[in-house]
Structure formats: C-alpha cells, structure tokens
Specification:
There is one protein chain. By secondary structure, the protein is α+β, with helices and mostly antiparallel strands. Helices cover about 30% and strands about 35% of the residues. The chain has a single domain, classed as 2-Layer Sandwich (GTP Cyclohydrolase I, domain 2), CATH 3.30.1130.10. It has helices at about 40-45, 55-65, 75-90, and strands at about 5-15, 25-35, 70, 90-100, 110-115. A five-stranded mixed β-sheet has the order 3-1-2-4-5. The longest helix is centred in the middle third of the chain and has 16 residues, at about 75-90. The two termini are about 15 Å apart. Keywords: Folate biosynthesis, Isomerase, Lyase. It holds the Pfam family FolB. Catalyzes the conversion of 7,8-dihydroneopterin to 6-hydroxymethyl-7,8-dihydropterin. It comes from Marinomonas primoryensis.
C-alpha cells in the first residue's frame, strides 16, 4: 500500500455553475484530497521540507477557487488536480469535490476523481 497524505473538509468559495444566477455569486465547495507521498524519508529525517506541505496545498486550492470560474465541478476538479500534480510533484491524487445545496433534497452532490502523474516523483 502506498502512503497517503490527506486533507478533509477544506471549504472554499467559488463562482461556479451553469445558471446565470450562479455566475454572480460565490458558492461553498468542499474538498477531500488523498495524495500519494512516500512518508518514509520525512519520518526518518523529521524534516518538514521533505513532507507535503498541506497548508501550502490548502492555500493553493483556496486561491485557485477564488481566481478561476467554471460552469461544471467536473471541469474545476480536472484542472485543479492537474495543477496540483504539477505544482507539488504528486504521483497521484484522489479528489472528492462536493457542492452542498446544489440539489435541495441532498446534503451535497459532487465528483470523485483519481489521477496519476505522467512522471514518477
């Protein structure tokens, strides 16, 4: 089994949606991430520089959502995961993206994707 670093329940605001009214407001999105990362080196060295900086990753996601606009959560998820893999040299990412309130009778709706890097870090 591969080591995973995770972030759960990261709340971001984004302009997202297909309807005209959605394109004028910020909506809540919830992110869960699992990122493959060999944790043996940071565990052996106790060196923060050898870990995945989940604060930096969280801030990257928050900025990404604040600065970009998409109609579909599927599009946002694909672009975000691609950028995360490149920016943080991730071997693989599983992202669950939820849009609470999109369907009145549901707690949330969303997508879950798993993508691997074309190169191994």
């Amino acid at each position: 089994m591969k080591d995973l670093v995770f972030i759960e329940g990261l709340k971001a605001q984004a302009v997202i949606g297909v309807y005209d009214w959605e394109k004028k407001i910020q909506q809540d999105l919830l992110f869960d991430l699992e990122m493959e990362h060999d944790n043996r080196v940071p565990a052996e060295t106790d060196d923060l520089a050898k870990t995945l900086d989940y604060e930096a990753i969280s801030n990257f996601i928050l900025s990404f959502c604040a600065e970009r606009q998409f109609e579909l959560i599927e599009t946002l998820a694909e672009h975000l995961v691609g950028d995360l893999i490149g920016q943080f040299k991730l071997n693989a990412v599983t992202l669950t993206l939820r849009k609470p309130g999109a369907v009145a009778a549901a707690q949330s709706v969303g997508v879950k994707i798993h993508r691997k890097s074309a190169v191994t870090y």
